[in-house]
Design goal:
Elements lengths: L16 H4 L7 H5 L5 H10 L6 E5 L5 H8 L3 E6 L2 H10 L7 E4 L12 E7 L7 H14 E11 L3 H18 L1 H17 L6 H10 L6 E4 L19 H8 L4 H7 L3 E6 L7
Parallel strand pairs: 1-2, 1-4, 2-3, 4-5
Antiparallel strand pairs: 5-7, 6-7
Helix pairs in contact: 7-8
Length: 273
């Protein structure tokens, strides 16, 4: 979507159990087995959560990521604006009654400034319009404690969906038709629920407009997600695709072929926003 798009956010009722408990929400297969998806595992490692770390997750979905953080002994809080998501997440975290889970809006967090050592939003910002995304970034930074950091993941990359995939999908169908049909369905769901998708440069611009000091924005060079994601696993069996994946170390290649965008911002004691 273009910046300034007037399309309204998808109503919370759309994020119901039919959405949450299917592959429409990334990582459902792993959730059923009590595990985390490849992407969520990587994000967990990046957050470096330890015992007693105070952590806020925005957009908790089913709650499996928050549960993994709670297992480390972290003091976890999670919000979602979907009642069904909060209900499912509470069930997911039923062994952690100390976890605080509530209905709230990402653009107006009901917490005091400097409350959490980690503030995380995985695959949330694309569900907001551009202006709401800026508000979420500002709010995440506001509730972040000094010496803590905030982390965002968003997917897909608009350079891939607009310029690469429309041309590549037909030859890719010759490699694995079922996987490409699955990817088509995944992107269609994205069009239904995503209000403002990003690329490396638009996400950097958002960080700057939100006033985040020294924010780091990058795109993952592991463009095939190590062959461990349901949308890339079978494709990596093809040597030519593996070769293309190995080129993710080159900046220009991952700008167009990568689909995992990250934003990380630390808060220093003298920072103001």
């Amino acid at each position: 979507m273009q910046h300034g798009n007037s399309r309204k956010r998808v109503p919370p009722q759309a994020y119901n159990k039919s959405y949450l408990l299917t592959d429409a929400l990334e990582g459902y297969k792993e959730f059923k087995s009590g595990a985390l998806s490849q992407i969520k595992n990587k994000l967990f490692d990046m957050l470096a959560v330890k015992k007693s770390t105070t952590l806020l997750e925005i957009g908790i979905g089913r709650g499996e990521f928050l549960r993994r953080c709670a297992k480390t002994g972290a003091k976890v809080t999670g919000i979602d604006y979907s009642e069904d998501a909060v209900a499912v997440a509470r069930k997911t975290l039923n062994q952690f009654p100390q976890a605080e889970i509530m209905i709230a809006d990402a653009t107006n967090l009901p917490f005091q400034s400097n409350s959490f050592e980690r503030v995380f939003a995985g695959d949330v910002i694309e569900h907001l319009c551009y202006e709401e995304g800026l508000l979420m970034l500002k709010e995440m930074y506001r509730v972040l404690k000094p010496d803590g950091f905030m982390l965002i993941h968003t997917s897909p990359n608009t350079f891939f969906t607009k310029f690469i995939y429309p041309l590549a999908k037909y030859p890719l169908k010759l490699v694995n038709k079922d996987t490409i049909n699955m990817l088509d369905a995944h992107l269609k769901t994205g069009r239904d629920f995503h209000i403002c998708e990003y690329n490396l440069f638009s996400l950097r611009t958002s960080a700057k407009k939100a006033g985040l000091p020294d924010a780091k924005v990058w795109i993952d060079k592991d463009i095939l997600r190590s062959g461990k994601h349901r949308l890339t696993q079978s494709l990596t069996e093809n040597p030519l695709i593996r070769l293309a994946g190995s080129c993710g170390r080159f900046f220009l290649v991952r700008c167009f072929l990568g689909n995992d965008l990250y934003l990380k911002c630390s808060k220093k004691r003298n920072d103001k926003i």
